[in-house]
Amino acid sequence: MTNDTSENAESGTGWIDQPDDANVIAALVEKIKAQQATIAASSKTHLDGRIDRGQHQKQTLGAFGTLRIFDTIPPALQQGPFAKENALAPSLSYRVACRFSNGQPCPFSDSAADVRGVALKFFTLQGTETDLLMTNEGGRSHARNAVQFMDFADILVAQIAKGAVGALEQASMEVFGGKLGPIETARIVAILAKETKLRSVGSLATERFWGSVVKLGTAAIKYSLQADDAAMQGTDGDRHGDSYLREDLLNRLQKGPLKWQLCVQLFTDEESTPVHDASVVWAGTPIAVGELEISSLPSADDETCINQMAFNPGNGFEPLGITHARKAVYAASAANRKDRGLLSTDEARKHL
Ligand code: HEM
Q1: What is the pLDDT of residues 88-100, one digit of tens each?
Q2: What topology is assigned to 5-21+53-139+205-349 in CATH?
Q3: How would you write the chain as a 3-class SS string?
C-alpha cells in the first residue's frame, strides 16, 4: 500500500493493521462473560441473576428510521453499504433499526454521568447485515485498545457490584498489579470525566457520536453521526427525571422528525488518524455520506424488538485495530444474554 500521505487522504489507504493476538481476544471473551455474570448476580443491579448486555444495557430509545445515502460521495467511499449498483440506479435508502443507549453495564438514571451510544442496523441490497455503533466520547474511546477497555471495565463492574470499596480493591489490582498503570488510569479517568461528568448531555438529538476504525473497500475509515444543526438545544422535558433522555426524544418526535448526518473520515497516516490507538481523535474533515431520519414514535413492540437485536461493529465492515476484539466480544456478550431474547440475523432481517 502507498505511504504517500496526500494520496492516502483521498483513498484512505496506507494503513497497517495490528489485530490483537487470538489468545488475547479469547481472554477478553472470557472476561466479558465474567463481567456479565458479576453484574447479573449483584443484588444492587436488580437483574435477578439474569444476564443482559455486557455494556450499554439501558436502551434510552429503540426506533425504526431511514438512512438515505447521498448520490454524490467521494469514489473511495462508494463501497459496501454506500455503493449504488450503477450511476443511474435510484438513490440508496435503508430502513434502519436505531438503538440509543447509556454505556454502563447495568441501567442507571439518565442523570448519572455516562457515555451515550447509538447502534444502527440495516440490510444492504445484497442482503448484508450492516451495523454502525457509535459513542459520544468526542471522537475517541477512553481506552487505547480492547485490553485496556476491559481492564478498566473490571473496575466499573466491581464498583457496581461491590460499591466503592470493591472498586478500590479492583483498581489497586489493575493499577498496581501493572495492568493499567497509574499514568494510563489517570488518562482514562480524565477522558471519561471530560466527556461524561463535565459535559452533561441535554438531548441525544443534539449529540455527535463516533465509531471505531473499520475497513471500507481498501480504505480505513471512522464513521460518525452528527446532529442536525437546526435541532433545538436543551432538553424537551424534565431534566431531572431518571429517563429524561428518552422523554426528550419522545417529546421531540411528537413535534417532528429527528435527523442526523452520517459522516466518514478517511485514514491519512498513523500519527493523525491512528488505526492502532483508539484513544486518539482523528484529524481531517468528516465527509457527509447520508442522512438518518426518525420520523415517527416507536411502538412498544418496536422497542422490544430492537432491544433484542445483536449489534456488532464487525457486521458489514471488515474490522481494523480495536474493532477486531470488539467483533468477538460483542458476539460473546450477545450469546451470553440469549435467555433474555435475542434476534438472529434472519429474525432481524424480517423487521428491516
Ligand atoms: C470506540 C470504541 C467503542 C464504541 C464506539 C462502542 C460503542 C458501543 C455501542 C453503541 C454499544 C451498544 C450496542 C447496542 O445498542 O446493542 C456497545 C455495546 C457493547 N460494547 Fe462497545 N464500544 C466501543 C468499544 C468497546 C470495546 C473496546 C469493548 C470490549 C472489547 C466493548 C464492548 C461492548 C459490549 C460487550 C457491548 C454489549 C454487546 C451486546 O451484548 O450486544 N466496546 N458498544
Answers
A1: 888 999 999 999 9
A2: Catalase HpII,  Chain A, domain 1 (2.40.180)
A3: CCCCHHHHHHHCCCCCCCCCCHHHHHHHHHHHHHHHHHHHHCCCCCCCCCCCCCCCCCEEEEEEEEEEECCCCCHHHCCHHHCCCCCCCCCCEEEEEEEEEECCCCCCCCCCCCCEEEEEEEECCCCCEEEEEEECCCCCCCCCCHHHHHHHHHHHHHHHHHHHHHHHHHHHHHHHCCCCCHHHHHHHHHHHHHHHHCCCCCCHHHCEEECCCEEECCEEEEEEEEECCCCCCCCCCCCCCCCHHHHHHHHHHHHCCEEEEEEEEECCCCCCCCCCCCCCCCCCCCEEEEEEEECCCCCHHHHHHHHCECCCCCCCCEECCCHHHHHHHHHHHHHHCHHHCCECHHHHHCCC
